[in-house]
Each structure stands twice: as C-alpha cells, then as structure tokens.
C-alpha cells in the first residue's frame, strides 16, 4: 500500500482513541489565567507525543501556559537553503472558562456530539494535530519537517505566545491552524484583527448631597467617552467598537472619583487599525467633564488574517484533500480573531478552522461533532501530502 493509504487507513481506526485523549483534556482545567491547569494539558500533549517517539520541547512562559513544540523530520534533509520549509500545525490549549468548570460539566457524549468546556474550541483540534503527527511518525511521507505548536494564552490575545508563534511562522512553508471547523463544515480563510484595551479615568470625590459642586465625576466622563467611542463603529468597513465592561464609583452618595471601561475594537484592513486607534486616543485624551484625566492601556491584540495568493492556493489544495475525505468545505470570513493572523502577517500562507467541526464556543452549550474527528484529520494529512517537495 502507498504511504497515503496507510495514513488514511490508520486514522480511520483512531476515533475511539481520539475521544479518549479528548476526554482527559476537556476534564482538565485550562482557563487562560490558570497556568497550572493549562500546563497540565500541555503535559498530556507531551506524554502522547513521547509515547509515539516524537521529540517534544517545552518553551517556558512566566504568566501563562508554557508552549509545547513537537517536531518530526520529513522531506529531503539534504536540500538546505530554504528558510521556509516547515509545515506548521497550530493550536491553543487555554479556554475561556473559570476554574472548576470541568467538574461542574465534564466531558459527555449525547448521540454523535460531545460536550464540555473547550471541547471544540479547541481541544479537539489539538487532538487532531497530535494524531496527524502520530500518523506521519508511523508511516513517513511528510514532504517537509512537521512542527506542531501548542500554545497557552490565545483566548486573551497571546501576550506571551505571540513571539513564539511569529518565530515559528518565519520558518513555516504553510500553516494549518486547527480552530474548530464552522458548523456548516467550512474553514476560515479571513479574519478580523482586534485590539483589546482598557481606559482608566480619574475624577474627584465629593459628597453628592452636601458638597456636590466640589466633585468631578469620573462616571460622567466614562459615559461621554463610551458614546464617542461607539460612534466610531463603521459597519460598512467592518469596523466595530464595543465597550463591553465598565466599573466605577465609590458609593451611591459620592461623586465618582474613578471609573474604567474596556474596549473591543475589530477591523478588517490593517490600515484601519492605526486610523481608529488614533481616534480612540484622541477621545481618551479629551476631557468631556472638566478636571478629569484618563489613560489608555492596550491589554491584548490580534492581527487580521488576510488571504494572500499563496494562501488561496493552499485553500485549493486543502479543498481537494477534503473532497477525498468526504466533505466540501467553503472558505469563510470570520469576525472572530485567532493566532492565525500572526502567522499570516509573517508571510506564511495560513488556513484557519481546519479542526473538527463544532459550535456555540465560549458557552455552556459548546459542542463537537464526533463524526468529524477522523475526516478532518484525514483532510489535513492529505493536504500535507499534496504539498509535495518544498
């Protein structure tokens, strides 16, 4: 039999093994700020890889989950001279859920769907990548070195993982990011960029009954700034501004001495970022309520995923591989952000959401279509084989 036949046949027998690995991952805490939990999931990845004889490297991170890097040699090692030869499979181990969530609602199966925190976003994608590497380890045939990167802080903008991802992207020939496939089976070929920032406002406290005129309301300033920031939304250009969290004040009978708002900016075109951020800075610097002062701090950021001609060719390759695996995915644009924007910005042709199909991410109703585990793994494996020599 050919190498491709061997790989596809072996993957077709691995559904129950995939589910077993996935169950352990989902039942392990892994919120972005729970370094211990995210690292436990990383240890599960490392144990699996080591059992397959695949080298694993742990890249320590201070605040968030360590990065796990698994590598598998492939292609013609004597060629040399090509700075971009790696085939990068990528995914994040962290979830958005609070500590204890797996205890409250552990991994369960109902019919052909699995449920649990992070089951689709994106622990199933991690499992898929692990088994794809295992298949190439068993049967060979990779047209270049395979690298699987498992990061730990994507859900909060990859503050520590981004430099690691960008370094890998510089050496990547192509990138497959295994975020969950869309509910209709599609993958993502374009995403918005995002900037997540916080603005803090200082006012002056005063008794709201006995000394009202001596106070300077930070909440009043917050309200004016929110109105101005929201007015920057331009739906035709795909630009949205949302102040999604606010805090402030001292007591109901005190003029508010402080307030805070958190901003979510989403945009499509890279040039739009600088334009809108300049307008946000102008709003923050302006005092609508005389005497207030404000400061803006960027807490996290994603770059947009844009489809280059090379990425379009990669999508065509993947779509052909998917057809042989029994499905026909569309290429979709998503308003959500992901680490795939970082790799695309580094010039690496990138596809996103090639992982198993799921939906309702970030909610208690999050689900995974178990029937997609094997076909999506087979599609990635076939796409890798179709790349040919670099």
UniProtKB/TrEMBL annotation:
Its cofactor is Zn(2+). InterPro entries: ArgE/DapE_CS, Bact_exopeptidase_dim_dom, Pept_M20_glutamate_carboxypep, Peptidase_M20, Peptidase_M20_dimer, Peptidase_M20A. It holds the Pfam family Peptidase_M20. The keyword Membrane does not apply. Residues 189-291 form the Peptidase M20 dimerisation domain. The keyword Transport does not apply. Keywords: Hydrolase, Metal-binding, Zinc. This is M20 family metallopeptidase.
